[in-house]
Amino acid sequence: MPSRTRKFRGLRTHGRGIKAGRGAGKQGGRGNAGLHKYKFKSMLIYAPDHFGRHGFKRPPEIVHEPTTVNVGELALLLPVLKAAQAVSQSGDTTVVDLTKVGVERLLGGGEADGTWKVFVAHATKHAREKVTVLTEAPTLP
Fold it and tell me: How would you write the pLDDT of the chain (141 residues) with one tens digit per residue?
């Protein structure tokens, strides 16, 4: 046992005073305690944006999220595309107009089975590497 501890045996506060011996007593609390009271000046200097709301969140009814499809899901969509008359076959290539079924964006997830030519408003870089993206809508029967 260190000599200082031994020296204070039997004394209630071990020479620290009453508050200082308790948890975080001398430093005015732990963490952000007192930022609205006695640590207010330091909060204004070092963290002026600590309290309050910042920025804004757009209302969900005006946020537009485009309808997306991955390249790997094109084969699964064939029955829906045929019902909407948005697909045609020319040789080994499947020509698809995704705008007819309401798809606005083609993503590059998955693998394309076969050769595809797709007309869509937007396509990612990886989607363009996997399929041919047409710039004009194809004439489908």
Answer: 567 888 899 988 888 888 787 788 788 889 999 999 999 999 999 999 999 999 999 999 999 999 999 999 998 999 999 999 999 988 899 899 999 999 999 999 999 888 999 999 999 999 999 999 887 877 776
Measured between alpha carbons, how far is 17 from 13 in angstroms, rounded to an integer? 6
Cβ atoms < 10 Å from Cβ of 21: 13
Of 3.30.460, 3.30.750, 2.60.120, 4.10.990, the CATH number of 1-55 is 4.10.990
Please report, for residues 24, 85, 87, 97, 127, the alpha-carbon distance to residue 140 in angstroms, rounded to integers and kept in the order given. 76, 7, 7, 8, 22
Separation between Cα atoms, residue 64 and residue 48, nearest integer Å: 34
